[in-house]
Amino acid sequence: MKRRIPRVGVGGPVGCGKTALIEVIAPKLVEIGYKVGIITNDIVTREDAERIRRRLKGVIPEDLIVGVETGGCPHTAVREDPSININAVERMEAEHPELDIIIIESGGDNLTLTFSSALVDYFIYMVDVTEGDKIIRKDGLGITQSDLLLINKVDLAPYVATTLEESRTPHADLELMRRDAERIRDGKPFIFTDCRSLKGIDEVLKHIRRDVLFEDI
User: Fold this and answer.
1) How far is CA 173 from the centre of its chain?
2) Main-chain phi, psi angles of 131, to 5 degrees
3) Per-residue pLDDT in tens (0 to 9) along the chain, 217 residues
């Protein structure tokens, strides 16, 4: 019986840092000894896959970084009808049965993005503080149903004006975002991250190693 390679979905609004997360997480997995495949989703281009190939040249072979052109709503391609992504995953599994994990990236400009359980085994959803500190309490399926929520770009929090009244002393209140996440996620994990400084990245890696790869850590 063919082994199903563990699959991790990474979703969130355009610009929240999904590609940057993969670019820092994948090399760390490789360094530990895991073989990683990556599939990205764009509507009419393969821009994210091409960027990752450039950034991870010499770390992950180019044929293990695949771009999928969805041709339409990215939500549909990972949730309602993920067949185009399932085909890409199964092709990668057939050509590279030695893989330990496949990461699938997909964007979406609202908070309803989720991944079909037929496509992924574990779902990471990302937002970032530049969307304002109200973004968590806006709720949405990605925020409530993801296995792991990342609140990214925390380094920019001091520069984000969350209301017109606060524009002279701009800030995004990270403590408020923490309280909102604790309340809305009802015990599910969340992490404050910054992919540039690598804040929180080791903690994200621990979740993947423990909950996806079943390491005893």
Assistant:
1) 23
2) -80, 0
3) 667 899 999 999 989 999 999 999 999 999 999 999 999 998 767 888 999 999 999 999 999 999 998 877 777 889 889 999 999 999 999 999 999 999 999 976 677 789 999 999 999 999 999 988 889 998 889 999 999 999 999 999 988 866 545 445 557 899 999 999 999 999 999 999 999 999 999 999 999 999 999 999 8
- Give which of 87, 5, 99 is closest to 41, Cα–Cα: 87
Per-residue tokens: 207: 């979740």
What does the alpha-carbon distance between residue 215 and residue 49 come to, in Å, rounded to a whole number? 28
In angstroms, rounded to a whole number, what is the distance separating the alpha carbons of residues 88 and 57? 21
Give helix then strand counts, H and E, for the chain. 7, 7
